[in-house]
């Protein structure tokens, strides 16, 4: 029985061990030609195949590893391919021996080599063995690719890697090339290494073409670039603000430099910083909402920075916002919630900046003038003697005349004070109405600016009419034609015509930067006219300036 099992093992051992397929691009060649050998195993194998048996009859010119993924409705199959470029060292019938890839061996192959072998100097052995962080990545998420060249002798300092490529992917260099050595198979190898980050945007199965090598050194034989099959997944979800933020880590911080209580008319600055690991800076969304009824907010500065690290790209977006309260009382700044997709744990996550509250004190009360008291009435008494009576009558006449003149003067003063009070009340009402119009104009302009910055033509059209109604309240504006009549600007006319044409033909191609710039010029012109009125003392401010 033992002999029977031994016989079966001898018969089927080649079949059991031949789990690695080996194919050649040709089976007959001359000694000056090259031969391409392909090894394939039905698994994802990181180890490099043992190529030492080939060195007896062949010179290894280059090698590359390719990971191939295939998907069905229920399964995902992965295989590893090694492409080897060989040049024969001898002639005749040469045998490619079984090669070990992982725990399996390939089948032997025979190839016929004719002609004369030219003597060539023995070149240094070198090969590429690069790494990728994963073979499945979300759209616009980060993929780390590390190019590695193994060489028996120290590489030249001029050796550099050309960036890898992938359809629709942004490529960023993370590190400079570095050289170090390691022990591999009992031998010392020198490794030249550089790391890149790729941010693919097109979903589907794509090929990542690895880095090519460029060197100014003499007689350098560059190995073939590696290929990796990468599956780019669509966004996992879409938040309410319409952006997709796949990152390894996200944090929100703020610089709060104001007191807990402010006087009326004072403003303060709030600085918010968004930090994301694994995203480029231009992918970070806007943080602060400018439209609010209790305050006017204006972005003073937005700065974007990127830091390259071996672990990936770290980006920051810092917004500096000046906030001006519009009334007394408790001013509440709402919390900022940022939804993002955690690529480390493959789940949705939220980062929150807590709400803030500032107290705006009441303005000092105005002390009204107290009316003057009426003079006492002088009582007269009659006398028995006519001279004294005449004297008293004369004094009474003079007193009554003086009292009448004093009363007329007090009445005139009271009337003037009443008129001044009415004028002040009218100015207060006008100022309050002006402040209300200015607040509405600021809010509608901010909404228009956001629509223009997002190139949202349909929203920009509605917000433009709302802004015009508040910018020219004395005119009845209910359409873009009415806004053009109020603006008296050929630039505004042309840009509105361009907006309407895009809305009818190609709404997603409209760019709102020129329209926003033209509206800002109108507002700047009004502000300058208002400052001129204040400096000249020509009259109160108005929206029609």
From TrEMBL:
It comes from Marinobacterium stanieri. Residues 441-524 form the DUF7939 domain. Keywords: Membrane, Signal, Transmembrane, Transmembrane helix. Residues 1-18 form the signal peptide. The chain crosses the membrane at residues 385-405. This is Oxygen tolerance. The keyword Signal applies. It holds the Pfam family DUF7939.
């Amino acid at each position: 029985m033992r002999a029977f099992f031994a016989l079966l093992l001898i018969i089927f051992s080649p079949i059991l061990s031949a789990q690695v397929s080996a194919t050649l691009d040709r089976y007959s060649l001359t000694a000056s030609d090259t031969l391409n050998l392909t090894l394939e195993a039905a698994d994802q194998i990181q180890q490099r195949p043992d190529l030492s048996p080939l060195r007896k009859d062949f010179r290894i010119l280059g090698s590359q590893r390719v990971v191939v993924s295939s998907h069905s409705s229920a399964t995902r199959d992965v295989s590893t391919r090694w492409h080897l470029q060989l040049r024969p060292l001898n002639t005749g019938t040469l045998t490619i021996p079984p090669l070990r890839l992982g725990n399996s061996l390939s089948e032997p192959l025979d190839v016929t080599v004719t002609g004369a072998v030219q003597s060539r100097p023995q070149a240094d052995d070198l090969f590429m063995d690069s790494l990728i962080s994963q073979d499945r990545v979300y759209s616009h998420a980060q993929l780390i690719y590390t190019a590695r060249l193994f060489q028996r002798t120290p590489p030249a300092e001029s050796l550099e890697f050309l960036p890898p490529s992938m359809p629709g992917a942004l490529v960023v260099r993370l590190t400079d090339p570095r050289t170090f050595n390691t022990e591999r198979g009992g031998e010392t190898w020198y490794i030249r290494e550089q790391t890149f980050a790729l941010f693919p945007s097109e979903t589907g199965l794509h090929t990542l073409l690895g880095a090519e090598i460029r060197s100014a050194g003499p007689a350098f034989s560059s190995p073939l670039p590696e290929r990796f099959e990468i599956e780019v997944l669509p966004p996992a979800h879409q938040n309410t603000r319409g952006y997709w933020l796949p990152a390894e880590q996200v944090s929100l911080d703020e610089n709060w430099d104001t007191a807990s209580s402010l006087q009326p008319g004072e403003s303060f600055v709030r600085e918010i910083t968004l930090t994301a690991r694994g995203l480029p800076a231009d992918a970070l969304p806007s943080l602060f909402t400018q439209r609010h009824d209790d305050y006017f907010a204006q972005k003073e500065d937005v700065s974007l920075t990127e830091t390259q690290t071996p672990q990936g790209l770290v980006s920051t977006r810092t917004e500096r916002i000046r906030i001006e309260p519009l009334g007394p009382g408790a001013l509440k700044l709402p919390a900022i919630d940022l939804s993002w997709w955690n690529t480390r744990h493959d789940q949705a996550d939220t980062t929150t900046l807590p709400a803030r509250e500032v107290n705006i004190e009441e303005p000092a009360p105005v002390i009204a003038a107290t009316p003057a008291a009426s003079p006492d009435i002088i009582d007269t008494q009659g006398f028995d003697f006519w001279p004294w009576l005449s004297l008293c009558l004369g004094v009474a006449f003079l007193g009554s005349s003086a009292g009448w003149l004093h009363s007329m003067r007090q009445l005139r003063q009271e009337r003037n004070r009443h008129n001044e009070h009415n004028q002040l009340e009218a100015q207060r009402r006008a100022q309050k109405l002006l402040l209300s119009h200015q607040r509405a104009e600021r809010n509608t302009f901010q909404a228009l600016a956001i629509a223009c910055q997002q190139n949202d033509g349909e929203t920009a059209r509605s917000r433009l009419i709302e802004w015009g109604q508040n910018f020219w309240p004395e005119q009845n504006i209910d359409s873009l034609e009415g806004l053009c009549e109020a603006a008296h600007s050929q630039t505004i006319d042309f840009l509105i015509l361009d907006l309407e044409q895009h809305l009818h033909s190609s709404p997603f191609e409209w760019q709102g930067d020129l329209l926003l710039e033209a509206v800002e010029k109108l507002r700047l012109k009004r502000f300058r006219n208002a400052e001129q009125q204040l400096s000249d003392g020509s009259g109160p401010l108005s929206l029609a300036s």
